Amino acid sequence: MYIDLHIHTTASDGSLTPSQVVRYAREKGLKAIAITDHDTIEGNKEAIEEGMREGIEVIPGVEISVDYSPGSMHMLGYFITIEDTALAEKLTLLQDSRADRNPRIIEKLNDLGLSLTYDEVVQVSGGGQVGRPHMAQVLMEKGYIKSIQEAFDKYLGKGAPAYLDKFRLGAEEAIAMITNAGGITVLAHPFTLQCKSPDELESLVKKLANQGLQGLEIYYSEHNERQISNYLRLAKRYNLVITGGSDFHGKNITGIDLGTGRGNLKIPYTLFERLKTVWEEKRKRC
Ligand SMILES: [Zn+2]
Ligand SMILES: [Zn+2]
User: Fold this and answer.
1) Which residues does 258 contact at the CB level (< 8 Å), separation at least 6?
2) So what's the pLDDT on residue 93?
3) CA 64 to centroid of ligand 1, rounded, Å
């Protein structure tokens, strides 16, 4: 009896709808799954309802991107209350603040004395997604710079005066957001943090545990044996629940299959039961 607690659908960047994911999970013989789309809980309701019809336990989930460097930090939230309006509002805010990043960059360029408008940038983008390369092109056409590279070096690149980071929550805020919605926070795929040593990872995990982190995603498509044993040691030391998932995106990321990852994932149902117990104990305390 196996599970998969890290799955994306068309609600974020996956290629299958929530219902299709559930039906595929049944085909693959999975007993429990969680939908963990990026910064959205939109796909959960449909998946949970389909799960009831298909006889698969579907628990509500989300994956939140956190402000962190040099690597990337993602937090998984499980058993969140999807009807929680405060959570929905915060997630909408996260999405909106990303969408209006472009006009804010243009404003910065204007403040630096470069004249360009959002409409001009949209025009050169050809109707697709609008981004900094299009701004660079407009700047070049207007003679402010000689090459796209120069635009990035002088104005648009990381550390340059018109650079604007994507808006992200801090780790503590992300944990609080999940906790306040009644969920359990799990640190996703720790290898993407790009910690330079096991000690560096340990001090980070210790800090996050003090901020309310309750679990580590240990069984994951990209983790090797050595990483897994290191993460298991940390989970034991800081009393963190162990989870696992494939990070399935359907056709959008090839080579990773639901439940089995790159072919060798087997995440036992007992981990799901343990996660559920931790959540139930937490709920009783509240
Ligand atoms: Zn992730
Ligand atoms: Zn993911």
Assistant:
1) 4, 7, 21, 24, 25, 28, 30, 246, 248
2) 84
3) 8
What are the tokens at 59?
A: 């628990």
Q: Which ligand is in closest contact with the Cα of 64?
A: 1
| Secondary structure of 131-165 in HEC code, one letter for each residue | CHHHHHHHHHHCCCCCCHHHHHHHHHCCCCCCCCC
The number of beta carbons lying within 10 Å of the beta carbon of residue 232 is 15
List the one residue out of 210, 186, 201 whose CA is nearest residue 271: 186
d(CA 116, CA 276): 54
- pLDDT for the residue 13: 82
State the 10-residue block means of pLDDT for the chain, 286 residues long: 96 91 98 95 96 97 91 95 92 78 91 95 76 90 94 91 86 96 97 94 98 98 96 98 97 89 95 97 84
Report CA(249)–ligand 2 centroid distance (Å). Answer: 8
Yes or no: say if 192 and 74 are a contact pair by the CB < 8 Å rule.
yes
Under 8 Å CB-to-CB from 202, ≥6 apart: which residues? 234, 237
The CA–CA distances, whole Å, from 10 to 41, 138, 176, 249 equal 11, 33, 26, 9
| Alpha carbon of 65 to ligand 1 centroid (Å) | 7
Rg (CA), the chain: 21
* Centre of ligand 1 from the C-alpha of residue 72, in Å: 8
CB 67 within 8 A of CB 39: no
Strand-strand pairing, 215-220 and 241-245: parallel
Residues whose CB falls within 8 Å of the CB of residue 83, separated by 6 or more in sequence, listed in order:
none
C-alpha 270/C-alpha 54 separation (Å) is 21
Note the pTM of the prediction, 2 decimals: 0.81
What are the residues facing 271 on neighbouring strands?
Answer: none
